[in-house]
Specification:
2 domains; Jelly Rolls; 27% strand; alpha+beta; 434 Repressor (Amino-terminal Domain)
Length: 195
């Protein structure tokens, strides 16, 4: 067995145990779900028994995961850097685990628009959390104050706009693919981006 194989073997064993513990299952409970003996499961988790493909498939099913996820080794970097969009005064990060999602940090300095005709609607969903300051979310006919550490989630088919309640406000937003596309077609309000 190579060092790489040994590392994968150890990782899979740790994953099995971690998934079992996360579910709150005892050795007996998972062994019953996987139709193997508790002693066999214990030896698998502790490295005293060789990992067999048929047992891994059975354990993956019993743990409500896939074999691919159970044996996955990630060679990607854990750290990702933002992409700065100078024209829109934003920075955003792609979410590797779900390419349909984008995370965006915005530092807003303008209040929301006074004119209801400036509210935009488009397909998708948005989720945002206010990191600092107070945001005003115009959502349909509603005017909502979103304070620091509060979050809002809404379908973007509702006409909406966001701005500050006076003073700079920093917001972290998560956009699905449709919401991101809807915002790319819209001129943004004036924002400052800090790295």
């Amino acid at each position: 067995m190579t060092q790489e194989d040994g590392e994968l073997d150890s990782l899979v064993r740790k994953r099995i145990r971690a998934l079992r513990v996360a579910q709150g299952w005892s050795l007996d409970a998972l062994a019953a779900r996987a139709r193997i003996s508790p002693s066999t499961l214990s030896r698998i988790e502790t490295g005293q028994r060789r990992l067999a493909l048929d047992q891994l498939v059975t354990l993956a099913r019993a743990l409500d995961t896939s074999l691919d996820q159970l044996v996955e080794t990630s060679t990607e970097d854990v750290i990702s850097n933002p992409v700065h969009d100078a024209a829109r005064h934003t920075m955003h990060w792609a979410v590797r685990a779900d390419p349909d999602l984008t995370v965006m940090r915005q530092r807003m300095v303008d209040p929301p628009p006074d004119n209801p005709a400036r509210l935009r609607a488009h397909p998708g969903r948005e989720w945002l959390v206010v990191l600092s300051g107070t945001a005003i979310l115009l959502l349909g006919n509603r005017r909502l104050r979103v304070e620091t550490n509060q979050a809002a989630e809404f379908p973007t088919m509702l006409p909406h706009a966001i701005g500050t309640a006076g003073g700079p406000t920093e917001v972290l937003g998560i956009f699905d693919r449709d919401a991101r596309r809807g915002h790319q077609d819209t001129p943004s309000t004036r924002m400052e981006v800090r790295s």
